[in-house]
Amino acid sequence: MNEGVQLTQSEAGTRYEVFHTDCPARDVVDHVTSKWGIWVLISLRSNDLRFYELRDGIRGISEKMLAQTLRALVLDGMIWREVEPTTPPQVTYGLTEFGQYVSEPLTNLFDRITERLPAPGAG
């Protein structure tokens, strides 16, 4: 997990000032809760996936937005990226321990919402 910036509390127990504009945790929250960040994290909850699998599975995301979202989440330490030296390169993504921890409540939120929505076409 050396690639990312996993945010933890300091030894003194001080907390991040998330309402302050230059708080580093704020950027991570923005990446996780962005339009596509949530879907990437939820998609990776059950399996590691290749770029094209994420692109095809998350309807409506462009390759550019997927690449930007993945790059941000890798830098934040939420997901890992593995490149296989093939032609063309095969890139696989998966959740780090930090990403698993953060994506669990997102999945629960998604489940709660879909459990309470009326069935499609039910009016």
Task: Describe it.
The protein is an alpha+beta fold and 123 residues long. Strands 1-3-2 form a three-stranded antiparallel β-sheet. The chain has five helices and three strands; from the N terminus they run H-H-E-H-H-E-E-H.
Dominant shape: globular
Q: How much β-strand is present in the residues?
A: 5-15%
Q: List low-confidence stretches.
A: 1-7
* Helix content, binned percent: 40-55%
Strand order in space, largest sheet: 1-3-2
Q: Mean of residue pLDDT? A: 86
Number of helices: 5
Q: State the end-to-end distance.
A: 47 Å
In short:
The chain is of the alpha+beta class. Helices cover 46% and strands 11% of the residues. It has a three-stranded antiparallel beta sheet.
List keywords for this structure.
single chain, 123 residues, alpha+beta, three-stranded antiparallel sheet, 5 helices, 46% helix, disordered N terminus
What's the helix and strand layout?
Elements: H1 24-32, H2 37-43, E1 49-50, H3 51-57, H4 63-75, E2 79-84, E3 90-95, H5 97-116
Antiparallel strand pairs: 1-3, 2-3
